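note to self — DONT lose this again. spent like an hour looking for the file last time. sequence + predicted structure for the chain T wanted, 137 res
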Amino acid sequence: MKPIDRPLYLKRIEPMINTEFIKIITGVRRSGKSYLLLMIKDKLLSMGVDKDQIIYINFENPEFFDLLSYKDLYKYLKDKVVANKKVYLLFDEIQEVSEWQKLINGLRIAFDSDIYVTGSNASLLWKDGHLLNWSIC
């Protein structure tokens, strides 16, 4: 099945590229969140962002099952981030990572980063009964 191009969704996200906000893309399963994240990756490349500045991880892919702890993911990212360059972090199904909220907030401090996450779970928006103050797409 061929993915459906979603130019209107991408157009809504484009003004938020290179902002400090964490971009959260939510929706029901199989609604195109992963494909939209890949469209964002393509957009960044077309804007001249180097491939080594973009880190895309789909946490449902068995290749990344060893990164489902926030500590392991942080170690992985430290090795991948290019010094003195902005890093674009694209995390698909981030709710699979334990204590991901803590990590995402910390990444904003640790790296010059632009962060995008997807998930189909309400845990993306709530922590300890409070709505997280992040940009939701």
